[in-house]
């Protein structure tokens, strides 16, 4: 029988981490455990790295296994849940539905009728109705957020700051349409806006446009700007950067990357700084007054 939401008032106990691809789930688990709190990974089959998952208390599951998750999480004593890691948005018919999921399937279908933020917020409501409290990764491990100023030796020029302001305005204006969280702007000209392809593929597109001559501006011109969408539920899908983001920006011929400090997750910050210095580009955490969070 499902437990009421009021049962989650006590935030003590193990943390359930629903674990997709990439390194972030493991960084979160390590930081949580350093504070003396047990972290239990609920690894998504086909996405999470099996070798790395094996080093933590864990259970494997498929997308659509909501009933199984509820049973196992309660057995582990978990009442708080974090979603973190890469999982591409599935089609409803791709979900491997168990009985617990079948009971809430109409709610899941309703959540799918919108953009990613609409979907994630809808899924969060389902979890909360079943007695779990959804937390942002940055709430349980605030160290993962980008701080103010440069990561590395380089900083944006006045021209770059103008491009940053334009990119932030674009992301804010596109927010009601629940599209991507990133844009590339060079000399005031919008070169790309993130959509379903994601940031890495968007940067590859910009690099290809440079190679084919569709972008005439000189190399080291332009900025990748990533920022949360207005009114986004920040427990989910905060903008994230990591070493591949730096590599992609450099290959796209950009001057750097700008993100709002305190509202962007950085995977492997030391590696990000080293990659930025190697490629002679900036990675910059914008102060609240600059980023209009």
What does this protein look like?
The strands form three sheets. A six-stranded mixed β-sheet has the order 6-13-11-9-7-8, with helices on both faces. A five-stranded parallel β-sheet has the order 3-2-1-4-5, with helices on both faces. The chain has a two-stranded parallel ribbon with strand order 10-12. It has two domains: 5-142, 3-Layer(aba) Sandwich (Rossmann fold); 145-291, Cytidine Deaminase, domain 2, CATH 3.40.140. Helices cover 38% and strands 18% of the residues. The chain is of the alpha/beta class. It is globular. Strand 7 and strand 8 form a beta hairpin. It is built from twelve helices and 13 strands.
Report how far apart the termini are.
41 Å
Discrete helix count: 12
Major sheet characteristics: 6 strands, mixed
Counting helices, strands and paired strands, the structural category is alpha/beta
**Radius of gyration of CA atoms, rounded to a whole number:** 20 Å
- Oligomer category: single chain
Whole-number mean pLDDT? 87
Number of strands: 13
CATH architecture of the largest domain: 3-Layer(aba) Sandwich
Domains, number: 2
Helix content: 25-40%
What do we call the CATH topology of the largest domain?
A: Cytidine Deaminase, domain 2
Strand content: 15-25%
CATH class of the largest domain, named Alpha Beta
Uncertain runs: 1-10
Short description:
This protein is α/β, with parallel strands linked by helices and 293 residues long. It is 38% helix and 18% strand. The N terminus is likely disordered.
């Amino acid at each position: 029988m499902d437990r009421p939401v009021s049962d989650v008032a006590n935030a003590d106990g193990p943390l359930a981490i629903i674990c997709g691809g990439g390194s972030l789930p493991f960084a979160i688990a390590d930081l949580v455990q350093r504070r003396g709190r047990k972290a239990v990974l609920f690894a998504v089959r086909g996405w999470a790295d099996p070798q790395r998952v094996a080093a933590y208390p864990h259970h494997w599951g498929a997308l659509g296994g909501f009933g199984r998750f509820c049973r196992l999480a309660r057995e582990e004593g978990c009442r708080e849940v974090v979603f973190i890691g890469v999982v591409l948005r599935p089609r409803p018919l791709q979900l491997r539905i168990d009985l617990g999921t079948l009971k809430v399937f109409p709610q899941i279908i309703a959540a799918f009728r919108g953009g990613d933020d609409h979907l994630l917020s809808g899924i969060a409501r389902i979890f909360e109705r079943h007695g779990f409290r959804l937390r942002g990764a940055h709430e349980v491990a605030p160290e993962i957020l980008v701080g103010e100023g440069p990561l590395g030796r380089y900083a944006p020029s006045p021209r770059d700051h103008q491009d940053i302001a334009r990119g932030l305005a674009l992301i804010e204006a596109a927010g009601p349409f629940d599209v991507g969280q990133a844009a590339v702007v060079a000399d005031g000209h919008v070169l790309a806006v993130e959509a379903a392809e994601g940031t890495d593929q968007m940067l590859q597109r910009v690099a290809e446009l440079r190679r084919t001559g569709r972008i005439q501006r000189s190399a080291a011109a332009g900025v990748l700007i990533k920022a949360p969408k207005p009114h986004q539920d920040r427990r989910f899908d905060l903008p994230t950067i990591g070493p591949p983001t730096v590599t992609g920006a450099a290959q796209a011929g950009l001057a750097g990357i700008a993100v709002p400090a305190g509202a962007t997750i950085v995977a492997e910050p030391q590696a990000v700084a080293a990659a930025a210095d190697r490629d002679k580009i900036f990675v910059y955490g914008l102060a609240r007054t600059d980023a209009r969070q």
